[in-house]
Amino acid sequence: MMQMMQLGRVGLGVLVGAACGTVDGPPPPPIPPGTVVQEQFSARGVSFPYLLFEPHGWRADRPMPVLLLIHGSGGQGSFMLDLWKAFADTEGVILVAPTFQLGPDLESEVPWLFPALMDSVRARVHFDTTQVYVFGYSAGGYAAYDAATLASTTFTRAGVFAGIITPDYDWILGKAVRKTPIAIYIGDHDEFFTLDQTRRTRDVLQAAGFPVHYVELKDRDHNYAAVSTFVNRDAWAFWTRGPAADQAGGTGR
User: Alpha-carbon dihedral of residues 199, 103, 181, 174, nearest 10 degrees?
Assistant: First the structure.
């Protein structure tokens, strides 16, 4: 299912804070609101860094939504965090942006790995467990679909830009404990995926009972950064509308 693609990267900008999570020893210091810190996750022999953003306005007694961001092949968590940080700060969303080695091994680990990662994050910064979202770009979209199906008891909403479910992975739909609403975006000039492939993904999800919001972006290609302002806001609007999600999907932009 996983196809490797080399994607462009952008810098994180100013990394305001840095911290490294540990299993033993004293707890890490609190995260100042509005800052990004570097953390490290390790479990079952899997270890990777991730960036954690706590927006202004966060309070321990008022849990906020949390969004797991999954970059494309050859990318980094900082790329995804850069594209969401301003919006998340305005809307009050905690961001988690790992840097993974994407591939089939990661996909097979999603059912336990992603929930374990979110549990680790929750020990660091309290979030609303009824608003746990995941968004994947390109090769990271495969893992986002896996999270929405194989870890559906953890993730309540999902989004994918330029990613599909290949026919050999249709079986994941039958493993979902709940039908996670999914927003799907694709440029009509995407270099890696055809509209037929993404429409097939939409159709199999809907046939399996998943609420789907589907958008084809006119005259756009595989470049997520170029359309991220629209995509992020549109996905957020879909996620926060509640259970009455689009079943018919749509096209446009």
Answer: 90
Cβ atoms 175, 35 nearer than 8 A: no
CA 12 centroid distance within chain: 17
CA 199 – CA 111 distance, rounded (Å): 25
What is the chain's Cα-based Rg?
A: 17
The long-range contacts involving 229-235, CB below 8 angstroms and separated by at least 24 positions, are 229/87, 231/159, 231/161, 231/185, 232/83, 232/84, 232/87, 233/87, 234/183, 234/185, 235/135, 235/159, 235/183, 235/185
Tell me, what's the pLDDT at 84? 98
What end-to-end distance do the CA atoms of the chain give, in Å?
28
Residue recorded with tokens 């790995």: 113
Q: Any bridge partners for residue 54, and if so which?
A: 35
Separation CA 217–CA 99 (nearest Å): 27
Q: Is the pLDDT of residue 14 over 70?
A: no
Alpha-carbon 195 to chain mean position: 22
Q: What is the DSSP string of 152-216?
A: TTT-SEEEEES----GGGGGGGGG-SS---EEEEEETT-SS--HHHHHHHHHHHHHTT--EEEEE
* pLDDT digits 0-9 by tens, 39-95: 999 999 889 999 999 999 877 778 999 999 999 999 999 999 999 999 999 999 999
Structure tokens at 253: 């932009």
pTM: 0.87
Q: Is 92 helix (H, G, I), strand (E, B) or coil?
A: coil
Domains and CATH numbers, the chain: 35-239 (3.40.50.1820)
